[in-house]
Amino acid sequence: MKTISIINLKGGVAKTISAINIAYTLTRKNFNVLLVDNDKQGNASKFFGVHDDDKKSIADVLTDKDIKLPDVIQPTEFKGLEILPANMNLLAADKMVLIDTTRRQQPRLKKALQTVNTIYDFVIIDNAPDLSMSNINSIVASDDILIPIKIDNFALDGLKQLLEHIREIKADFNPGLRIAGGFVTMYQKNNVNTTGIEHLRDTSPIPVMSAVISKTVKVDESTFTGKPLLLYAPKTAAANDYIRLTEEYLRYLKKWANISPKQGGGYFG
Predict the structure, then answer these.
(1) pTM score > 0.90 for this model?
(2) pLDDT computed for residue 258 by the predictor
(3) Domains of the chain, CATH where assigned
(4) Is 119 left (phi over 0), alpha (psi -120 to 50) or beta?
């Protein structure tokens, strides 16, 4: 099982949409995927129709040492894709984890995910744009980091702080953590984006992936339908961009391990 955190301290860069569409694209390649909603706004949970403030969520996984993760995970209507939901209870949970010194605070999500590592090939974590305890747990639990980047004058804002944060967590809790790279979202074929990508590739402290995600109104429309782009608008550039991005990440993984889905799903080491 490989765990990937999609994170950026800047909001509005398509973290949730990317997490949803990468997760679904992996299922189309016959992988079993768990999508973890790690944002108190619960947008990924709302997308799949499982948002509920009164039901168990990732907040309970972080605060209740006796909870069983399979009891919190919810199915989606899509084969091979399940979700660990989030809601506003995560706000209080972050504070509870911070003050609870009776057990280790940082690896709680990692320990919970280890109990389902024979069920899923991939875990995709959609993170809020902050440095909360839940995000620390996400990074500690992850094998790889993917950073969505929107091309504008503030594209690299917060990146230095995020990378310092990741380096500290890597040193203290997760020595195997890797930054797979950044990827450009909401791309438009104009001078600003063309020049911006060139500048990003020249100056970014992290690798920038070749695949870029095109801007399209179909992304916003898909949030009302609850369907990933490959289903809602399969002929759009953005839908095919997510295929290319996912395939690029899988090629990256092959540098580290020989991966293939087990018959009927399963996991790889």
Answers:
(1) yes
(2) 54
(3) 2-254 (3.40.50.300)
(4) alpha
